[in-house]
Specification:
Low-confidence stretches: none
Protein name: DUF1214 domain-containing protein
Distance between the termini: 23 Å
Largest sheet: 6 strands, antiparallel
Mean pLDDT: 93
Structural class: alpha+beta
Order of helices and strands: HHHEEEEEEEEEEEHEEEEEEEEEEH
Strand content: 25-35%
Length: 428
């Protein structure tokens, strides 16, 4: 790593490829033919059961926008002259690089994760060089290699075993030098200390920086071909044609996904914990909510000593609201513990004045997701103890939330201001 630029002079997320991708997306979104395709899909989804609900109808346009942006970014990644990682998924719009990028989402996208993706050829060799910022490392880094690419989601009836990554590692598997640098190789056959073995065909190289505190910073990474790779100029017209072709099946896949997610949750229900395989080894719990005015859901969880745990709320299409403007997610650094070390969250439309409030952003129904990742290897977890309590309460009941950590209106304002500032750290 001695020949690299100084860490402060290297773009972490605002790479040249990222700039090209975002400027291309914004130009693509003005395309009249694309708008017509979106309008046809909107009419189809508006007639579905979810599209006819109050909350589903209110959020449909945003969901279509996010899915369109998600597909377009993936198509752009497929047509880059040289494979490169792109920051592809974030439901929260961001103002940087001289423009405002709208949300780029698919389903259950975590506001605490920096999702980066590159598309490569499995019969070629690559290296990934990277470096951690010593004082503000992410809580966990997930790195995986998958078959296929993002523009063609798997069939709805695909077995979970068929979706397992070809290879997966975390920061625990890296050989990290004293200056925070590391190297990974990718390819069919390479003698390397840290290697992701590939297979022929189009593959996805994906990474997630998990932030348990928004003061943490994503790591610098760069994907480099080791073999001579044919290149051709980037052609936005080719991207447009691919988007026209792939948007209908892509959008309809994600629109139907909530009906199968965790068995198709409806009403005020919570799932049993499910284990996560691959580099994201840990647990997830899903919930659905359908609240009357004045009602709230109260959930108490055990952090289980996980380096990362977070709780997020989503709309009926499983898209998250702007995480800078609303408290729609909470991670370890943003959550006040109970005296016994557990956390109690309150999900409601009205602000009940508790510290760990999750805002439904005016919606009557939607979904929630709780994650535990990077549990210490010497700390076995009984999944049955991860959720201690789940109940629907009336906010008019003075005893329902009596013993929970509270905040004043002034503290809530400060809490929201800290969210915006913390989120903006990742775009510096």
């Amino acid at each position: 790593m001695s020949a690299e630029k100084a860490p402060n002079s290297r773009p972490v997320l605002a790479t040249p490829s990222q700039v090209l991708a975002e400027e291309s997306l914004l130009e693509l979104l003005d395309d009249l033919k694309l708008k017509n395709v979106q309008a046809e899909l909107r009419a189809e989804l508006a007639s579905t059961l979810r599209g006819q609900t109050k909350s589903g109808a209110a959020t449909l346009d945003e969901a279509i926008s996010q899915w369109t942006n998600s597909l377009a970014m993936a198509e752009i990644g497929n047509f880059l002259p040289v494979p490169a990682q792109l920051w592809v998924t974030d439901d929260t719009p961001r103002e940087w690089l001289g423009h405002t990028l709208p949300g780029v989402g698919t389903s259950g996208d975590n506001p605490d994760a920096i999702y980066r993706t590159a598309f490569i050829e499995g019969d070629r060799r690559y290296e990934v060089v990277g470096q951690f910022e010593a004082a503000r490392r992410p809580a966990q880094v997930n790195i995986e290699l998958h078959r296929g690419n993002k523009v063609n989601p798997p069939p709805m009836n695909q077995k979970m075993s068929d979706l397992m990554p070809l290879a997966s590692i975390t920061e625990r598997n890296l050989q990290i030098a004293p200056d925070g640098s590391f190297r990974i190789t990718i390819g069919p056959d390479i003698e390397s200390p840290v290697h992701l073995r590939s297979v022929p065909g189009r593959l996805t190289f994906a990474s997630r920086d998990m932030l348990s505190d928004w003061e943490q910073r994503p790591i610098w990474m760069e994907l480099r071909p080791l073999d001579d790779t044919p290149t051709k100029p980037f052609d936005l017209e080719e991207v447009k044609q691919a988007v026209y072709r792939d948007l209908p099946p892509y959008l309809l896949f994600w629109a139907k996904f909530p009906d199968l997610w965790f068995g198709g949750l409806k009403g005020n229900k919570i799932s049993s914990p499910q284990g996560r395989a691959g580099s994201m080894a840990g647990f997830t719990v899903a919930l659905s909510w359908d609240l009357e005015p004045g009602q709230a859901i109260v959930v108490t969880t055990d952090p289980a000593r996980a380096a990362y745990t977070g709780f997020q709320a989503m709309d009926p299409w499983m898209i998250g609201a702007d995480a800078k403007k609303s408290q729609v997610s909470l991670n370890l650094a943003q959550t006040a513990p109970n005296p016994d070390g557990t956390f109690t969250f309150v999900l409601s439309r009205e602000d009940p004045g508790v510290a760990n409030w999750l805002d439904t952003t005016g919606l009557d129904e939607g979904f929630g997701l709780i994650r535990w990742q990077a549990v210490p290897p010497d700390s076995p977890v009984d999944p049955a103890t991860l959720v201690r309590d789940f109940r629907v309460v009336s906010l008019a009941d003075g005893d329902a939330l009596r013993d929970l950590p509270r905040v004043t209106p002034e503290q809530r304002t400060a809490q929201l201001a800290a969210r915006a500032e913390g989120y903006n750290n990742r775009t510096l």
